[in-house]
Amino acid sequence: MPDDLQVEQLVIDAFNGYLIREKKNILNSKELNQISKKDLQVQRRIHFKGIIKNLAEIGVRRSLQLSHQMGHSEPHDFKPFFKLDPRVRLTLCLRYDFQFTTNEIEDITGMTRYEVIEKLHNGRYLLLHDVN
Asked: What's the pTM?
């Protein structure tokens, strides 16, 4: 299956999984018209983190299963990044692409604070020194 289709299916699966798991909470929430803008932003952030959490769980599992296929299609410029452990890549992306705090990354990944900081530090070191 081409990479773009795999990514698309991953996002669909994560979104559907989140909707199935949180269906009652979403349906029982207040009417959107009655929620203040600040509360609405908080709700959006909570739902976004939930979807990202599902995406992360499925993505890490699938990346381990598809690691042999990924070796052939990695962009040449990003080889050091793709050589990192999937959980390290996930942590780096959540921190630097999505701008999540370490506390939010803990919530999303289920790792302890120590593990999050360790993965961020080790990932940066390995990328800077091209050790992996």
From this structure: 0.73
